Amino acid sequence: MRSELRYEIDKVTAGQRLDLNLERGRIRDELANQNAETNNLTNKLDREIHALRAHLEAAKYDVIKYCIGTLVSICAVGIATVRILL
């Protein structure tokens, strides 16, 4: 009787251990998948941020270029006006 009881307890314990190990492996796989997805999203965000920074730099240089062109044009018109008046 004792041996049968011990056998049943060992069988239930082994089943629970197997279930726990399977659950732990499933959770480990799920965490690995989430980590890979997080890394992919991080890389995508880094690429988008880099592209936005490059676009912002290009726009900044365009604004500076047009400001300098406007100032040079205003100076040229001012000098021409002074020459005409004198």
Automatic annotation (TrEMBL):
Spans traversing the lipid bilayer: 63-85
Pfam families: CCDC90-like (PF07798)
UniProt GO cellular component terms: membrane; mitochondrion
Keywords: Coiled coil, Membrane, Mitochondrion, Transmembrane, Transmembrane helix
Signal sequence residues: none
InterPro entries: CCDC90-like (IPR024461)
Keyword Cell membrane listed: no
Keyword field contains Manganese: no
Main subcellular location of this protein, as a coarse class: membrane
Subcellular location: Membrane; Mitochondrion
Protein name: Protein FMP32, mitochondrial-like
Organism: Salix udensis
